[in-house]
Amino acid sequence: MRRKRGSLLPIEAGILEAAIRLRIEGVAQFYGFLIAREIRERQDARLLTAHGTLYKALDRMRKAGFLESEWEDPLVAAQANRPRRRLYWVTAAGEAALVRAPELVPLPAAQPERGLAPS
Amino acid sequence: MSALLDVAVGLTHAWVALYTRGLPAQLRDARRAEIDSDLWEQGQVAALVEEPASETALQLTARLLLGIPSDLTWRLDAGRSAGNERSISMNESGAMRSLVAVGVVVALFLVVTGIGAIVDALVQGDLASGQAAFGAISVLAGAAVAAGLLTSRRNPLLGIGLVAAGAITVAAAWYWMLMITIPIGIAMVAIAFFRARQTGWPRRAASA
Fold first, then answer.
1. Which residue from A26, A90, B70, B96 could staple onto A52, CB 3.0 to 4.6 Å apart?
2. Is residue A1 less than 8 Å (CB to CB) from chain B?
3. What letter would DSSP give residue B86?
4. A32 part of contact set with chain B, CB < 8 Å
């Protein structure tokens, strides 16, 4: 889909909104399934975002600089006895893009002093 | 886990394995690991909230099917980017391929001629006359030219070196035909050189 540079697709705006809400709730980093579940709850949808749609959007947003990511420490995953998560967080560029989005749903009061980096 | 859930998870794994096939290992493994993690997380949450396995299987299948168009476009983009960085054999021009084919035919002519000279010397039992040595040199030179032309994209220095060595050897061995062997030799080296240049060499090699 063609779009203006810096503008957001609905799925991207949904991811950013959900990620920022998670951060406000104290979850600084998110992983794919968590954000899919968050979006479903926010939109009161029955289905989770499709794998292809979700991970393609995350990849695109990471390349656009809206998100950053890193793989979880393998020891943490091993201790929890689960596969490693790829952890994402919203960058300043991502937050700015969401603020510029015309169809933006008002977010709860921002807490800029907490910064954008993962805790 | 119910059979339906097993099938849904298996289908998702199979689909991811299929569309990531042929991608660079890092990209392929990252996507597979991310989907693995997602499937595991969904299974855990489903178990936690005691969601019926059939409902989870349905959710997974829907997520798989609805995401296929995005998976395919992502795969096309990823493959294109990887292809641009990686090799180039796919986008070699038709003219260059034709030139390489002609060069290889000429090189094979040398090989066949050389083998003929060796066989003839063996049949006549006249190995000491130098005909067999001439044949062996022609075979080696022809093989070097053909191998050099074919490897000049993957390994430019080796490829050009082999072609040059073969061409010089032929010019020396067939010295009475210098008017023909020198221009053909130069043309062969030029083909190998320009074939190598299409890969970005020597700039790409310097920046690697």
1. B70
2. no
3. S
4. yes
Structure tokens at B181: 């062997």
pLDDT tens per residue across span A5-63: 567 899 999 999 999 999 999 999 999 999 999 999 988 888 999 999 999 999 999 99
Residue A109 resides in a domain: no
Residue of A nearest to B74 (CA): A56
CA–CA distance, B172 with B139 (Å, rounded to integer): 14
Q: Give how many domains chain A has, as a whole number.
A: 1
User: Looking at the domain assignment, is residue A1 inside a domain?
Assistant: no
The domains of chain B are located at: 3-85, 93-203
The reported pTM is: 0.59
Residue range of the domain that includes A38: 10-102
In a domain, A50, yes or no: yes
* Count of C-beta atoms within a 10 Å radius of residue B18: 11
| Residue that the structure tokens 């890969």 belong to | B199
B40 inside 8 A of chain A by CB: yes
Can you tell me the distance from the alpha carbon of A54 to that of A104, in angstroms, rounded to the nearest whole number? 19
The answer as to whether A91 is a domain residue is yes
Four-CA torsion B77, B79, B83, B84, nearest 10 degrees: 10
CATH code of A43's domain: 1.10.10.10
